[in-house]
Amino acid sequence: MNEAILVKFGDDRISSRQIDELIGLARGLVADGVINKQEVEFLQKWLVANGAVSNQPVISTLYKRVTEILADGVVDQTEMSELLDTLSRFADRDFELGETLKSTSLPLCKPAPDLRFQGQTYCFTGTFNFGQRKHCEAAMIERGAGVGGLTKKTNTLVIGVYATDSWKHSAFGAKILQACEMRDKGHPIAIVSEEHWARHL
């Protein structure tokens, strides 16, 4: 075995151990169904300590998300619930943050429509690569669109890239199902992926 293969084998073992440790950590954090600022800070410290020796996209993506949450010194309820949902799915090995879902299992509009922003109303659900939901909404407001919950005024529902095959059972599944029902009843609502939305920005 040459040295490069040995180094690669060692790196793979470290990465695998880190993911197992992170899954255990996530299970501990979500066990009581709530997450607080101290727990988010603890998670950030673990990610910092392990990020330098990891080539795992899950660690770098989660680190980016946690750093964004802590950036303003305030962890609000929306940020808490989004992170709790993300960690819960990761703890169940439901998905890895570095992997995106094959869009065939999501009820996206086919073909995906051209998107306009000015005067349109957007709703966001799921976990986004672009940033937190508030960052997605800010990008829309800058372009003249309205944002908010899912209502009859909603023109487009955008589903975050980190969705899973079990999306119907996730925290954001109800919103997707509601949008499908609206569309089935003839309401002109578009359901698109984050990737499609991001291409129009």
UniProtKB/TrEMBL annotation:
The keyword Ligase applies. It comes from the Bacteria. Keywords: Ligase. GO terms for molecular function: ligase activity. This is NAD-dependent DNA ligase. It comes from Neorhizobium lilium.
